[in-house]
Amino acid sequence: MTIKPLAPDELLTTTRSVRKRLDLTRPVPMDLVRECLEIALQAPSGGNRQGWHWLVVTDAGLRKAIGDYYRRSLRAYYESGTSAGKLFQDDPVRGATQRRVSDSSEYLGEHMGEVPVMVIGCITATGGLPPGNQAGLWGSLLPAAWSYMLAARSRGLGTAWTTLHLAYESEIAELLGIPSDVRQGVLIPTAHYTGDTFRPAARQPLDEVLHLDRW
């Protein structure tokens, strides 16, 4: 597999959530997924525990079942009135962006079960989720998941970060045989992408969110 020669800054600023441009018909070799996960395992984790687990789902029946749960969760999300498309409606620029995000999210929701590979990042949580601040737990998984997405981008794969499946976490855990002391943190649909127009996204100006020494 040819790795795109992307400079670090370009890789970091052009790795986007790919939803509409996932190739739903082209298989993704498991060796390619393994390469990306090997890179993900180099990410930091609290105490170097490396308590993560990576469930790679390729079976058509399991993907369809997860896709069905995901679609149900997405519909509830849209009916709640808090979806991306409802945000910043009074801002013509950001509002238009939010509507595009919402549209692409809806498309992915309808086709999630057709994505050739689903990667579910999990972490051991013996005794259940800790009370109060859980940053230490999830901070030992999510950097590795992002590293996976970066590695996928450089190998011609599109990914998207989503957690909507967690509304049915227990059902999906039973479906996939996930132990009770392992919790799911992220679902990353993975496929070859169509098109090649990745570029940095519009973001809030740094000075609007930067605080020096004090808030």
UniProtKB/TrEMBL annotation:
> What SUPFAM superfamilies has UniProt attached to this entry?
FMN-dependent nitroreductase-like (SSF55469)
Q: Has UniProt tagged this entry with the keyword Plastid?
A: no
| InterPro entries for the chain | Nitroreductase (IPR029479), Nitroreductase-like (IPR000415)
UniProt KW Chloroplast keyword: no
Keyword annotations from UniProtKB, A to Z: Oxidoreductase
Q: Name one Pfam family in it.
A: Nitroreductase
**Mind listing the GO molecular function terms for this protein?**
oxidoreductase activity
The family this protein is said to belong to = Belongs to the nitroreductase family.
- Protein name (database record): Nitroreductase family protein
Source lineage: Bacteria, Bacillati, Actinomycetota, Actinomycetes, Streptosporangiales
Ranges of residues in domain Nitroreductase? 14-180
